[in-house]
Specification:
With about 350 residues, the chain is α/β, with parallel strands linked by helices. The protein has 13 helices and 11 strands. The protein folds into 2 domains: about 170 residues, Bacterial extracellular solute-binding protein, family 7 (D-Maltodextrin-Binding Protein, domain 2); about 130 residues, D-Maltodextrin-Binding Protein, domain 2, CATH 3.40.190.
Length: about 350
C-alpha cells in the first residue's frame, strides 16, 4: 500500500511540476512597427510573420503590431526601438544612413545583385550577417533578418532602354547614393517625397520616376500617365529589415530567438516568391494595355553596375561601411557581377 501511495504521489508531483512549468513558461512581449499598411502585399506578409512566430512559440511570443508607422514616423522607428518606445523596427536600414553611411549598404546596395535570392545569399552565406551585426550592435540593435521584394522598375515618359537614355532625363529619385550615380550617367534626378510622384508626373515636373517595383507602380497609377517601363528591373533592390532592441532580444529565451530568426528566413522566401508572381502579372497586364516594357542588354546592365560600384567608395567613409562594401564586392566577384 505504501508503495502504491508513494508511486501515486510521485506521478502526481511530476504532473504538477509539468503544469507549473507550463504556467511559468517565459513570455516574450514585443511592440513592432512597420511602415507598410495592413492591406498592402507587404503588410499582409508582415502579418503572416507575426502569426508564424506567435503560433510556433505556442503563444509564448506575443506581438502588438503597429502598421503604417502609426506610433512614430518611419525614419524614427529604429530609434524608437533602440530607446524602448518600441521593441522592434520592421522598416529598413536605408532610413538610417544619417547615423552611419554603412546603412546604405544594408538598405539599398544599388547596382549590386540581380535577384533577391543572390542578395539574401550574401546576407546568410556571404559574410553579410556578421558584418551587418557589428553595425546594428553599435546602435544597441540586433538585426533579425531581411525581406527583399526584388528589383524596382522605372516609370517613364520616354523609352529607357540603355544608359545613354538617361541623358537629361528628369526623374524622381530618393535621396542619397542614387542621385550621385544617376548624375554621373547624365540624368537629372529630383529628390521628392514618395507622395508627390503622381502629381509631379501628371504636371510634367518630372519625365519619370524611381518609385517601386512594377506591381507597386501599377498600384500607384503611374502607368496611367506614362507608358514606358523597364522590366525586369536592375538599379535598386531595397532590403526591408526586422531589427530589435538588443537588450530585449538578449533577454529572450534561446528558443524564442531562434523562432524569430528562422521565421524571418521563411518571410524572406515568401516575399521574393510573392513579388515575382505579382510583378509578372503586372508586366502581362501592362503589355496588354500598350505600355512598353524594355529588358536591358547585359552590356548595358554592366555599365550601370560599374557606375554604381564606382560610387560606393564615396559612401564607404566609416569602418563599418568599408567592411560592408568589401564583403559585398568579395561575394559579387564570386557571382561574376563585379570586377
Amino acid at each position: 500500500m505504501l508503495k502504491k501511495i508513494s508511486k501515486t504521489l510521485l506521478v502526481g508531483g511530476a504532473a504538477l511540476a509539468m503544469s507549473a512549468g507550463i504556467v511559468s513558461a517565459a513570455e516574450t512581449n514585443l511592440r513592432i512597427q512597420t511602415h507598410y499598411a495592413p492591406e498592402t502585399v507587404s503588410g499582409k506578409l508582415a502579418a503572416q510573420y507575426i502569426d508564424d512566430i506567435q503560433t510556433m512559440s505556442g503563444g509564448e511570443i506575443k506581438v502588438e503590431m503597429f502598421y503604417s508607422s502609426s506610433v512614430v514616423k518611419s525614419v524614427e522607428t529604429f530609434d524608437a526601438a533602440a530607446t524602448g518606445i518600441l521593441d522592434c523596427d520592421m522598416t529598413g536600414g536605408g532610413y538610417q544612413t544619417g547615423k552611419n553611411p554603412a546603412f546604405q549598404f544594408v538598405g539599398d546596395i544599388m547596382g549590386g545583385y540581380e535577384t533577391p535570392y543572390q542578395q539574401l545569399s550574401w546576407l546568410y552565406y556571404g559574410g553579410g550577417l556578421e558584418a551587418a551585426a557589428k553595425l546594428y550592435n553599435k546602435f544597441d540593435m540586433e538585426l533579425i533578418g531581411w525581406w527583399v521584394y526584388g528589383q524596382e522598375s522605372f516609370a517613364s515618359g520616354k523609352p529607357i532602354t540603355k544608359v545613354a537614355d538617361f541623358k537629361d532625363w528628369k526623374f524622381r529619385s530618393p535621396p542619397g547614393m542614387e542621385t550621385k550615380i544617376f548624375e554621373k550617367l547624365g540624368a537629372k534626378p529630383i529628390v521628392m517625397d514618395f507622395t508627390e510622384i503622381f502629381t509631379a508626373l501628371e504636371s510634367g515636373i518630372i519625365d519619370g520616376a524611381d518609385a517601386s517595383g512594377l506591381a507597386n507602380n501599377v498600384g500607384l497609377g503611374l502607368y496611367d500617365i506614362v507608358k514606358y517601363a523597364n522590366f525586369p528591373g536592375f538599379h535598386s533592390m531595397p532590403s526591408d529589415h526586422l531589427a530589435c532592441n538588443k537588450a530585449v532580444f538578449d533577454a529572450m529565451p534561446a528558443s524564442h530567438q531562434r523562432i524569430m530568426k528562422v521565421a524571418m528566413e521563411a518571410l524572406a522566401l515568401r516575399t521574393a516568391l510573392t513579388f515575382e508572381k505579382k510583378n509578372a502579372e503586372a508586366a502581362a497586364s501592362l503589355r496588354a494595355k500598350g505600355v512598353t516594357l524594355s529588358q536591358w542588354a547585359p552590356e548595358e546592365l554592366q555599365k550601370f553596375r560599374d557606375a554604381a560600384q564606382a560610387t560606393w567608395p564615396e559612401f564607404a567613409t566609416t569602418p563599418e561601411a568599408k567592411d560592408l562594401v568589401e564583403a559585398h564586392l568579395a561575394y559579387l566577384r564570386q557571382l561574376g557581377l563585379a570586377k
